[in-house]
Amino acid sequence: MYDLIGIALFVIVVVSVVLTILALLISRISLNRHVWLARFFADVLDFFYLPIKAVFHRYADARTLDTWMVSLKNMAHRSAFAKTERRLLLAPHCMRSLDCPASSTRFGIECVSCGKCVFSRMLKDAERFGYTLHIVAGSSYIRHIVKKESADGALLLACNYELNKVMRSMKRKKIVTYGIPLLNDGCYATEIDYENLIRVMESLSGQNDQIGRK
Q1: How confident is the model over 29-72, as pLDDT tens digits?
Q2: CB neighbours of 43 closer than 8 A, spacing ≥ 6?
Q3: Domain-wise residue ranges, the chain
Q4: d(CA 65, CA 161)
Q5: Which of 14, 86, 131, 179 is deepest in the core (most CB within 10 A)?
Q6: How far apart are CA 31 and CA 78, in angstroms?
Q7: pTM recorded for the entire structure
Q8: 97: buried, middle or exposed (CB in 10 Å: 19+, 13-18, 0-12)?
C-alpha cells in the first residue's frame, strides 16, 4: 500500500515538474510568436507561481517570470476579452503629474482633465473605446471598483509584477484581463507607450487585426 502511495507521489512530482518547465518554455516563446494551449499553460504557472517565483528569486530576475506570464495570459485572454461588454481601464496613479490637483476617492483618483499629464487624453480615449477609466493607488481600490462597476473585462496598465498580481486576483472574480506593461518601473513619473495603448484598444474592439505588444 505504502509503495503504491510512494509511486503515485513520485509520478505526481515528475509530471508537475515537467508541466512547469514546459509552461515556462511556452510562456517565453509567447513573447515572440503565437503558442498553442496558452490558457492551460497560464493556469499551470498560476498554480505553481509561488515555488516558481522562489526559484527565480534565487537564480534569476523574478521580474522575468512576471513578464513571461503576462505575455502568455494576454495570448490566452485575447479572444475572450474581445467579447466583453463592460470594460474597465485601470491605470496606476504613478503616471499622473506630481502637482495633480485631482482628489482621491475609494474608487481612485478623479481626473479633472487639467492637462498636466497623460490622463486628460486617456480619459477621452477610454470613453471613445467604451472603457471606464479608474486611476488607482493600490489593489484595495480595485476591490471597491469591481463591486461598483460589475465589469466583465479589465484592461490593465502597470509594471509586469502588478499586472500579473491583478490578473491572478481578477481571475477569481471571473473578470477577463489584458495587460499592457509600463515603459519604466517606479513609484512616480512612470510612462506608457500611448500609441501602443491605442493599438491594443483598437485591436480588442475589433477595429484592427493587429495585436498590440509592448
Answers
A1: 999 999 999 999 999 999 999 999 999 999 999 999 999 999 99
A2: none
A3: 2-204
A4: 9
A5: 179
A6: 14
A7: 0.90
A8: middle
